[in-house]
Amino acid sequence: MEYVALITGFLVIMAGLWAIMTQKNIIRIIIGFSIFDTGLHIVMVALAYVKGRTAPILDNMVSVEEALNKIVDPVPQALVLTAIVIGLGVTALMLAFAMKMHKEKKTLDVRNFKDLKW
Amino acid sequence: MRNFFIIIIIAAFGIMLYPLFDSFSGNEELSELASFYAQKENVEKVNSANLVTAVVVTYRGLDTMGEVTILFLTAAIIAFFLKKQSDVRSLRENTEIFTTAAKLLIPIIIMLGVYIFINGHLSPGGGFQGGAVIASAIILILLAFPNKPFNHKFFGYMESVSGLVFVGLAALGGLIGLGYLDNAILPLGTFGELMSAGAIPVIYSFVGLKVGAELSNILNGFQSVQSDS
Amino acid sequence: MNFLIISILLGIIILAMAGIAIIQKNIVVAIIAAGALSLFASILYLLLAAPDVAMTEAAIGSGLSTIIFFYVLNRIRTTDERNEE
Question: Alpha-carbon distance B63 to C21, whole Å?
Fold first, then answer.
């Protein structure tokens, strides 16, 4: 199962990279960035999985004594948790920039933004 | 021609990723760090049933603080960009059915968010999830009553007070506990009960309020530039 | 074994959603597909024993970010209409 998730994550990362590099519309480039984000998260969670184990929450089913042999790795999950929230902030920031750029140039096509091109 | 080069670049990227996949053989046991966190004496030191919460709030609490700071910065920049709005807005009024259903649902959704972050140390959930659920209640308010003024002051105060309490509790752990963000400044309680795990539920509740207020500010920034014609 | 079949199905659906989000001409459909990708990814996280991450992804990835995309799209559409007048 973790292999399937790993392949899916890598392919989603490559799909996002393709969208970032080929699209002309800024909104579509930002969609590509958010797809790239999701792929990275899938890869990180798949790396944390341990075969046949359960979530890192100790309750009646998983007692404190046997936690060492029954739970998956909690550290990458905690990192992904914060990464998703930051991802929303960064996406919102990029969209705000895109709105500002559209207000300046009246277009969303990246080929029209030549201000720093030489 | 350009697409051809991009295909070559992406194929090279795929070849670069392939060894990562090839050398991955599926974990059979926990890594060293994770087994340190899952040991019996360390679990009893923190007393939190949800180990992800323990990692987010206590062991890697400094990361969470940095993350909340980044979120605050993005909210501030977005508010700065979208603030000036001189042209007239014309927003449609919603139908009776939608507004009545929204009035019924909003308190329930906010209650669910508060439940999620208060029980963050016992069940899946916590400040970030609860904050996101609260922000989705706020988005329902913004969609259902688009012409009502948004109370910036309340959300601003809520956000700053939660941030100050978060930093204050963390520093208190450094002063009277073992180190910065130590959770043993409050009694640890019985394992698996609501009033346990020391300062973790308190800190995570304030993180939840802060995240909810920040996401609401971002959403309101985008809503304040809308118009329907 | 059952989980393996479900995860393969989910992987195919996720890749299809990524394809739709990239290829689709209509930008509204592309945004919806990106949101659906997040939703199916959250089910995959649940299978990979990460309920915390699944909750966050379901609330943020498919809820809030989709709505922000639509707000921006609406703003850009109204600005275009005003420019034409």
Answer: 32
